[in-house]
Amino acid sequence: MSGVKVIVTELPPMQAQQKQLNELVDELEQLKADYEYVCERRPDAVNTEFAENWAKIPEKLNERVIKQTTAIENLNHFNAEYNAILNVLRKLESKFKPDDIESPDQLAQPVVGDSNQLNMELRKIEIDVISARNFSEILIKDAEPAHREHLLSQIKELNEFFTKVQDMHKGQALKRTQVLDKAEEVLERLAKTEVWLNELEQSTPKTKISEINNSNELFQIKSKFQTLKEACERESVGFRELNDLGGELLLQMDELKTTGEEVDGK
């Protein structure tokens, strides 16, 4: 019995084996009285080899019980760790639903904190996945072929799920960064537009028709308005670009929210 490996399989047959081993321990305990009785009454009936083997049985059986118990505990530990990692990954996946975004300022506020927190959680779960994979190798080396494949498929599932969540986080973070960059550009151009409009207002002639004294003054005012008209026409191209950029920004904000809703619904 010494050196015999415990074959890792599903829990029910392993637990049934453990029950049988415990029954053997109880049976051995009951046989001790019979053995002692024979040794006392007929010492010549028990040879040296038999006595030596009998003396080794409790230790060997106890070793087998310990190995079986350890194997079951290891399998239970792996299953618990596997389920815990899956639950954490599902929760992380659901965190890709952002809060309602109404303005670029509101968009910017949660990005750094949420991103840092998610990075920490992803790093922690990555360590847990590696730990589960390493622990599974202990079970795999003593597992029967069918259960070995089952353990390998569980580890593959954890690796793929983690990669999926990690990629989703990277994609979401990249989209947020792009939206923020675009929002900064829109705000900067809006500020410049406001300055230009103020300058336009100040540049616009305020002279009333009744205040024009001669044709020279009229010509100067007309020239001034013509110059302002040309400037407005040139600036209107920028207005249209800014309007299109703002519309695109709103669409991307909606896309961020929609992506979160789709993830949450999976």
Note the beta-strand portion: under 5%
CATH architectural grouping: Up-down Bundle
Supply Rg.
40 Å
- Cα distance spanning the termini: 51 Å
* Strand count: 0
Number of DSSP helices? Answer: 6
Mean pLDDT: 76
- Please state the overall shape, judged from the principal axes of the Cα atoms: rod-shaped
Estimated structural class:
mainly alpha
- How many domains comprise the coordinates? 1
Q: Could you explain the architecture of this structure?
A:
This protein is an all-alpha fold and 266 residues long. It has one domain (11-265): Methane Monooxygenase Hydroxylase, Chain G, domain 1. The chain is 84% helix and 0% strand. It has 6 helices and no strands. The protein has helices at residues 11-41, 48-94, 104-108, 111-140, 145-203, 215-265. Helix 2 packs parallel to helix 5 (145-203). Mean pLDDT is 76; it is low at 99-104, 106-113 and 259-266. Keywords: Coiled coil. This is Dystrophin, isoforms A/C/F/G/H.
Q: Summed up, what is this model?
A:
The protein is an all-alpha fold and 266 residues long. It has helices at 11-41, 48-94, 104-108, 111-140, 145-203, 215-265.
Write the layout of secondary structure elements.
Layout: H1 11-41, H2 48-94, H3 104-108, H4 111-140, H5 145-203, H6 215-265
Kindly list the characteristics that best describe this protein:
6 helices, 266 residues, Methane Monooxygenase Hydroxylase, Chain G, domain 1, Dystrophin, isoforms A/C/F/G/H, mainly alpha, 84% helix, disordered C terminus, coiled coil
